[in-house]
User: What shape does this take?
Amino acid sequence: MSAEHVLDRALGAYLGFACGDALGATVEFMTPEQIQRRYGVHQDITGGGWLGLEAGQVTDDTQMSLAVGQAIIDNQGWNIRAVADNFVAWLESDPPDVGNTCRRGIMRYRENGELSGPSRVDEAGNGACMRNLPVVLSTLNRPDYFSEWSLQQSQITHNNPLSNAATLTLGRIASHLINGRDMDACIQETGRLISQYSEFAYSPYSGKASGYIVDTVQTVLHYFFCSDSFESCLIATVNQGGDADTTGALAGMLAGAKYGVQQIPGRWLKQLDPQIATQIRKQTPELIRLAGLR
Assistant: This one.
């Protein structure tokens, strides 16, 4: 696998993630029926939504991912306290949206330095899974580090077996795709997840797209595996509504890793917040270099 190919897929994953976030934020918490009545098919990055975003603005998904990526780059490797410190700085920047579980974990760290709390049933949200792409990129040929780093960053806010398993599975699928492996490797990865936790089974698809990690993963895998292009995957995913910024971001991550950055519609890249796009384009090659691939 050439370095150029890896960078193309990695940029596809990261920019695809941000595009999915920006596209989905408009219809977050809406039902498919409400989306259809209001937009027909929601397929352009227009902003708005319950957060009243500017067109191209992203949410906590992309912002927290960039915080993880910057901590890795600044330390030329892994430093979990640097990740947590970046989360604190992000929280204190008054972001437009902060999940309750993320807020609780970050505030716990800020107040007493704890990098994780006890395992909790109510931490089975998608807030840890949504920000793990920089770990994927910086460990592309270091699977031994991938699991350790992923779980450490996850458990700052989400210490739950379902969240842990989903974060690792989607990260491994993204890694396989960026490294040029075929869809069989991805299907085997989902099979391992479902054999461990049968609730993640996504066929037949339940139609639920909430922030509960099981609903999120089912939605992302269903639309990823039954679409044949980056654009069709993302449009179908976000039009399911629910936690559409996160399902859109994670679907964008997988589809971007599969199809590459050239397959992301130009109208979406053009609309994406230029500052965010610049940060992603700067972080991606640096993270890959740390993985020893460039």
The chain has one domain: 3-290. Residues 3-290 form a domain with the ADP-ribosylglycohydrolase fold fold (CATH 1.10.4080.10). The chain has a mean pLDDT of 97.
